[in-house]
Amino acid sequence: MPRPPSSTDALRRLIGLRWLSIGVMLGVLLCVPWLLDIPLPGAALLPVAATLIAINAASMLRLAHLGDDVRPAELFAQLCIDLAAWSAFLYFTGGATNPLISLLLPLVAIGAATVPGPWAWSLAVLAVAAYSLLWDFNEQLDIYDSGLAVHWHLAGMWLTFALSAGVIVWYVVRMTAAIRSRDQALAEAREASLRNERIVALGNLAAGAAHELGTPLGTMAILAGELARNPALDDDTRADAELLRTQIAHCKTILGGLTLRAGSLRAEGGTTMAADAWLAGITQRWRSLRPHVPLATRIDCGTPPPLLVADATLEQAIHNLINNAADAEPQGVECAARIDGAQLVVEVLDRGPGMPAGLQAGRDAVASPGPGLGIGLLLAFGAVERCGGTIAFTPRPGGGTIATLSLPLSALQP
User: Fold this and answer.
1) I need a surface site. Which of 57, 59, 282, 292 has the fewest CB within 10 A?
2) Which residues pair with 339 in a beta bridge?
3) Whole-structure pTM over 0.90, yes or no?
4) Number of other residues whose CB lies within 10 A of the CB of residue 41
5) CB of 4 within 8 A of CB of 182?
6) Residue 240: Cβ within 10 Å count
7) Positive or negative torsion for Cα 52, 58, 62, 63
8) pLDDT one-digit tens code per residue, 335-355
9) Gap between the Cα atoms of 98 and 242, Å rounded
10) Dist CA 311 CA 252 (whole Å)
11) Which residues pair with 272 in a beta bridge?
């Protein structure tokens, strides 16, 4: 996700523009006497540039050590420093007659794009006041050829206009990009909030279903037990009855754990275990629930494997991915897990028909049984994103889909 713009970014841009101002001042001091044969009061102008260098260095240290708490008043003060420095520089170089006075306008434009309205208007008033004062209060330069002076004044006006246009465009483009980045971040946050609201609603429905299903499951367990003990049944029917009783017991265990699992990143009572043992337990529990679908596993978490906290919501996410793959291809699925740098990567592979065209995985839920994508996938995305992980779907060579779940180890380790 793109990082939204902040007042710290604005201060960094102001520091960069101040380095440009310092460069222009030093360039004028070095080039004008040499190219135009116009003497400049270096003893008065050098301290202005030196002061800006010191302030810029202090501002950079402030950013490095005091964090991101930059208030609009501080940004306004930074702009006022630039305005005062240019006013002092212009005072000693002809005042309002110096074509560089147009550089006060970019400061006003930058202030309007950086600080709130009242501060921006205050900066504009100060700039107009500085321009007005420099009209009458200034130190005129000694220029002996009046015709040449007019020529260089016009050339200076052109150069100042070009520089001002470049600065304004650069700053506005940067600000526009920052605003677009902020809008995109807000849109993604809004989308995540809506998705989380759907997950919370599903959680409430699950809690109600767990309460309602407890009684019929208990009745079914009793009937399945009595049926399995019936001596009149043949062996095949008795085996089916035992399997039915086992599945009902699994359902009761799952419903009993909903209270601990709902709404928790790490379920209460979660234990620390090796990554390979955690993943092996997930796949083994899945096999017990769907014994008729072959599941091939390849788990390689290194030696020794990292220790993880058994996260119930992530267990359910992996379970749902395997379940969706089994729905897409009941003849058999594969599950591979490995450590890739600082991430745990789990891949679920099937030979099904692939992802439906136009489906936004993690945002849409398919109501029909269809190709094995539904509410479980939506819940899986919610659980993984809360841990800072991702789920990606790619076509499998030869047909089918590869679901890749990537989880940062830092979010799973104790």
Assistant:
1) 292
2) 344
3) no
4) 12
5) yes
6) 15
7) positive
8) 999 998 888 999 999 988 876
9) 98
10) 20
11) 309
8 Å CB contact between 76 and 124: no
CA distance 99 to 85: 16
Alpha carbons 191 and 321: distance in angstroms, whole number: 22
Over the stretch 112-157, which tens digit does the pLDDT of each residue have? 888 888 999 999 999 999 989 998 888 887 666 566 666 666 777 7
Q: At what angle do helices 146-228 and 104-114 cross, to 10 degrees?
A: 20
**d(Cα 293, Cα 286) in Å, to the nearest integer?**
10
CA 22 to each of CA 33, 40, 92, 195: distance values in angstroms, whole numbers, following the listed order: 18, 16, 16, 50
Q: Where are the alpha helices (DSSP H) in 371-411?
A: 375-386
C-alpha span between 128 and 173 (Å, rounded): 26
For the domain with range 272-411, which CATH number is right: 3.30.1390.20, 3.20.10.10, 3.30.565.10, 1.10.155.10? 3.30.565.10
Cα–Cα nearest to 298, from 352, 339, 329, 327: 339
Domain ranges of the chain: 7-190, 193-261, 272-411
Per DSSP (E only), the strands in 80-230 are none
Per the listing, tokens 């939506």 go with: 378
